Amino acid sequence: MRKTRTRTGSKIALISTGGLAVLLLISMLTAGCMPPATGKTPSEPVSPVPSKDTVTLTLYFGDDQAMEVLPERRVVEVPSDPSQRPPLYVLVVQELLKGPTDPLLRKTLPPEAKLLSVQVTDGLALVNFSREVQTKHWGGSTGEAMSLLSLVNSLTELPEIQKVQILVEGQKVETLAGHFDVTQPLARAIRTGDFFTSEERAKALQARVDQGQDLWRKDPLEVAKRESGGRGLLCNLEYKLVSKARGQATVSVEFNGKTYVITLNQPQKQGDQGIWVIKSIERR
User: Can you give the pLDDT at residue 52?
Assistant: First the structure.
């Protein structure tokens, strides 16, 4: 909305030479700045259209012992105009490269690496990194496994992606750090067995809840929904609480015609104020 600015002149008193005081009020108006009277009330100012919006991403990073990948939900600022936003799959990789904001989680990709491009066709994401994704990688089979699980699980949270092909400088490579074959596309996989939670992590999570944070950790069903994604399940499946008693709980979920049973326990406190963590995931 265009605003019109006006200036009002000063009031000047003039006194005649004959001693007869004549008070004259002269309004000094700046030419061209005073709009003609219309009798209409000025309209209310229009609020500007917000230039920013946000999206929420689910990103997977390593735990404190590099035993599991765990989700971090991150709110990312984007342009309010959808046509100006980067695709979500680009944002996912960019945010992974920044590392976790949660101090209980660990980075999974070398921050020196640059994302050159991401192309998605028929469910396959071609993720093209600069060479630093290899040359700056810290190595080790565990470290490389965390990198691959982090990248694949984070991208396949998006419904349009089922597999991920890693490229370096536009070319396929045999491996990132010498332990896992990445010449072929990688798919999200459900991993069963014991689910590791260190005592240090359990204590830190309980302390957060005691301080009024992350209160969803007091609900075993919610914990199963949010954290079993680290083992390949998805949070939008239909999870059902099967049992809950004496610091133990079980949750079931069906995926691709198979039933998975998630067992949880309370490692710090039992009862309504204790946190729940996943103990194992098994297929039945």
Answer: 87
Whole-number Å distance between alpha carbons of 272 and 2: 58
What is the Cα–Cα distance from 166 to 211, expressed in whole angstroms? Answer: 41
Residues in the chain, total: 284
Q: Which domains does the chain have, with CATH numbers?
A: 52-189 (no CATH), 194-283 (3.10.450)
Q: What is the pLDDT of residue 48?
A: 56
Looking at residue 195, what is its pLDDT? 96
Q: What are the contacts of 130-138 at 24+ separation with CB within 8 A? A: 130/168, 130/169, 131/168, 131/169, 133/109, 133/166, 133/168, 133/176, 134/168, 134/173, 134/176, 134/177, 136/110, 136/112, 137/110, 137/176, 137/177, 138/110, 138/177
Q: How many angstroms separate the CA atoms of 232 and 281, rounded?
A: 10
Residue 15: the pLDDT is 38
Strand partners, 164: 125, 186
CB 258 within 8 Å of CB 189: no
What predicted TM-score, i.e. pTM, was given to this entire model?
Answer: 0.81
